[in-house]
From TrEMBL:
It comes from Xanthomarina gelatinilytica. SMART domains: YceI. It holds the Pfam family YceI. SUPFAM superfamilies: YceI-like (SSF101874). InterPro entries: Lipid/polyisoprenoid-bd_YceI (IPR007372), TTHA0802/YceI-like_sf (IPR036761). Coiled coil: none annotated. This is Protein yceI. Signal peptide: none annotated. Gene3D superfamilies: Lipid/polyisoprenoid-binding, YceI-like (2.40.128.110). It comes from the Bacteria.
Length: 176
C-alpha cells in the first residue's frame, strides 16, 4: 500500500514539474509589432530568438511566472536599410542593449483570459506593464500597446516620422 501511495505522489509531482517547466519553441515564438510611419503607413515587424523561463499553470497562478527575453538585433521589418537604422543608437542601440526582457510579478485570471503584470526592460529603461493574454494548445498569445518614448526609443525622431504607440503581439509556443 505504501509503495502505491509513493508511486502516486511521485507521478503527481513529476506531472506538475513537467507542466511548469515549459521549453520555449524558438522557431515558432516571436514578438510582432505594428507602428505608424509618416501618419499614413503602418510598419509591421518582428523580433525572434525568444529565451528564458516560462512556467505557467492555470491551476496555480501564484507559482506561475515568466522571465522572457528576445534578441533586439533580430528586428525585422522586411527592409534591410530600415532594420539597420533601427538597430543603431538612433533607436534600439542593440550593441549597448542587446535584449528586451519581461519579468512577471503577478498573473491573474480575468474572464476567459489572463493578465500578467511585470517589468518590461528595453533600451536601459524598465517600466511596469500589463499584458492581457490567452493560453491554449501550449501557446501564449498576448497583446498590448507600448509607448516607445517611455523607453527613449528614437526620441530624436519625434512622432511624425515614427508613431509613438506600437501595437505588440507576443506569441510564445512552449513544449512541456
Amino acid at each position: 500500500m505504501k509503495i502505491l501511495q509513493l508511486y502516486i505522489l511521485l507521478v503527481s509531482t513529476l506531472g506538475l514539474t513537467i507542466f511548469q517547466n515549459q521549453t520555449i519553441d524558438q522557431n515558432r515564438s516571436e514578438v510582432n509589432f505594428k507602428i505608424n510611419n509618416l501618419l499614413i503607413n503602418t510598419v509591421d515587424g518582428t523580433f525572434k530568438n525568444m529565451t528564458g523561463t516560462f512556467k505557467f499553470n492555470p491551476e496555480d497562478l501564484e507559482n506561475s511566472n515568466f522571465n522572457i527575453c528576445i534578441d533586439a538585433a533580430t528586428i525585422n521589418t522586411d527592409n534591410d536599410k530600415r532594420d539597420e537604422h533601427l538597430r543603431s543608437a538612433d533607436f534600439f542601440n542593440v550593441e549597448k542593449y542587446p535584449e528586451i526582457c519581461f519579468t512577471s510579478t503577478a498573473i491573474e485570471k480575468k474572464d476567459n483570459a489572463y493578465i500578467t503584470t511585470g517589468n518590461l526592460s528595453m533600451h536601459g529603461v524598465t517600466k511596469t506593464v500589463q499584458i492581457p493574454f490567452e493560453f491554449s494548445n501550449n501557446t501564449f498569445k498576448g497583446h498590448f500597446e507600448l509607448e516607445r518614448m517611455d523607453y527613449n526609443i528614437g526620441e530624436d525622431t519625434g512622432t511624425f516620422m515614427v508613431g509613438s504607440t506600437a501595437k505588440i503581439t507576443i506569441t510564445c509556443v512552449v513544449t512541456p
